[in-house]
């Protein structure tokens, strides 16, 4: 991909994130009868974007360290290892998905 194309995709993703964050903030401010500034939404969007970039890099590195080119649920679980509650939620979800997949295979 050319640099211009990569930058265009990045800008579009960031705009979509800004929209989504703005929508969530709007819903919460209405629910709580509060106001926020557009600068707050922008700063929050930048914080979320930076966190997404860090998570993506960590997942890529975990996968690469394991000798894989594809990120798996094991990488996501490794990423969540320091947050026990989040780790448990993700692990339960993965286990449920595996169980459901096993049931579908046995019905065939």
From TrEMBL:
InterPro entries attached to this UniProt entry: CENP-S/Mhf1, Histone-fold
Signal peptide start and end residues: none
Pfam (any one): CENP-S
Top-level taxonomic group: Eukaryota
Keyword annotations from UniProtKB, A to Z: DNA damage, DNA repair, DNA-binding
Keyword DNA damage applies: yes
Biological processes annotated in GO: DNA repair; replication fork processing; resolution of meiotic recombination intermediates
Gene Ontology MF: a single term: protein heterodimerization activity
GO cellular component, one term: FANCM-MHF complex
Family note: Belongs to the TAF9 family. CENP-S/MHF1 subfamily.
Protein name: Centromere protein S
Organism annotation: Monosporascus ibericus
Source lineage: Eukaryota, Fungi, Dikarya, Ascomycota, Pezizomycotina
């Amino acid at each position: 991909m050319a640099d211009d194309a990569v930058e265009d995709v990045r800008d579009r993703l960031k705009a979509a994130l800004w929209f989504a964050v703005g929508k969530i903030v709007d819903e919460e401010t209405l629910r709580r009868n509060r106001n926020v500034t557009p600068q707050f939404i922008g700063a929050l969007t930048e914080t979320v974007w930076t966190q997404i970039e860090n998570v993506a890099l960590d997942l890529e590195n975990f996968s690469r360290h394991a000798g894989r080119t594809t990120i798996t649920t094991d990488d996501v679980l490794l990423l969540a290892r320091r947050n026990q509650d989040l780790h448990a939620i993700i692990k339960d979800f993965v286990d449920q998905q595996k169980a459901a997949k096993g049931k579908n295979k046995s019905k065939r």
